[in-house]
Amino acid sequence: MEVKIADSWKNILQPEFDKPYFKELTDFVKSEYENYICYPKAKDIFAAFDFCSLNNLKVVIIGQDPYHGPSQANGLCFSVKDAIKHPPSLVNIFKEISSDLNQEYPQSGNLEKWAKQGVLLLNATLTVRAHEAGSHQKKGWETFTDCVIKQISEEKENIIFLLWGGFAKKKVKLINKKKHHILESGHPSPLSANRGYWFNNKHFSKTNEILQSMNKPKIQW
Predict the structure, then answer these.
(1) CB neighbours of residue 178 within 10 Å
(2) Residue bearing the bigger pLDDT, 195 or 219
(3) For 192-203, what is the mean pLDDT?
(4) CA–CA gap between residue 202 and residue 169 (Å, rounded)
(5) How many CA atoms lie within 13 A of 99 on its CB side?
(6) Where is the Uracil-DNA glycosylase-like domain (predicted)?
(7) Is residue 191 part of a domain?
(8) pLDDT tens, position by position, 109-147
(9) Packed helices 141-155 and 20-35: angle between N→C axes, nearest 10 degrees
(10) What is the C-alpha separation between 52 and 94, in angstroms, rounded?
């Protein structure tokens, strides 16, 4: 696996690429992609960083694993390619946006447009074997993405972190609460949403209110 990461992120992440665990991780990922069908496509593994520059960063959303079905994952958490059926969590995200902001349910599940506005859509694990959820967990990706969160916390200020569900909420220890804004809620998955832990969290309007209070452009969700 060749690591091609956007220049704006290189400066703060380069030390990670030189560490032994990252070499083991790249060897593992390379072998997996050579011997199995894996997602996302190799060129999209670092897409979250390609579409959202560090300089433009406003919001961080943390997911867990890429989608493991055909043609779904595009390197951005919760996002799918154009014309792909929306997975259940994304359906609930869009329902909440629709009611929170009083706007129509979006047709495309491709969230690149969010990323281009400064939303980092970061999965904790950046790759997965087809049809095997969690198959690339605990191979080093989490060490890397934890470092990403820590570096953002240290290098930036007034970033809005949206922590959805138990897994994402554990990342709070990596974030300096005095410098940043943290919004927490249940996960948008049907299991959590149907128990009342997701809907009406109003994270999308709250995010825009925080951005407006800092005279930054709102996100067009």
Answers:
(1) 6
(2) 219
(3) 94
(4) 17
(5) 11
(6) 49-211
(7) yes
(8) 999 999 999 999 999 999 999 999 999 999 999 999 999
(9) 130
(10) 21
Structure-token pair, residue 190: 């049907």
Q: How many CB atoms neighbour CB 51 within 10 A?
A: 24
In-domain check, residue 126: yes
Q: Count the alpha carbons within 13 Å of 167 in the hemisphere toward its beta carbon.
A: 16
| C-alpha closest to that of 122 among 102, 148, 97 | 148
**56 is in which domain, residue-wise?**
7-214
The pLDDT value recorded for residue 1 is: 67
Structurally, the chain folds into a number of domains equal to 1
Smallest CA-to-CA distance from 50 within 90, 82, 8, 14 is with 8
Q: What is the CATH number of the domain that holds 167?
A: 3.40.470.10
How would you classify the pairing of strands 128-129 and 119-123? unpaired
Output Rg (C-alpha) for the chain, integer angstroms: 17
Q: Which residue among the candidates 65, 82, 100, 146 is catalytic per the annotation?
A: 65
Task: Report the predicted TM-score, pTM, of the whole model to 2 decimal places.
Answer: 0.95
How many C-beta atoms lie closer than 10 Å to residue 23's C-beta?
12
221 occurs within a structural domain: no
50 is catalytic: no
Specify if 2 maps to a domain.
no
User: Nearest to residue 170, comparing CAs of 66, 57, 89, 64?
Assistant: 64
- Residue 103's CB is within 10 A of a number of other CB atoms, namely 13
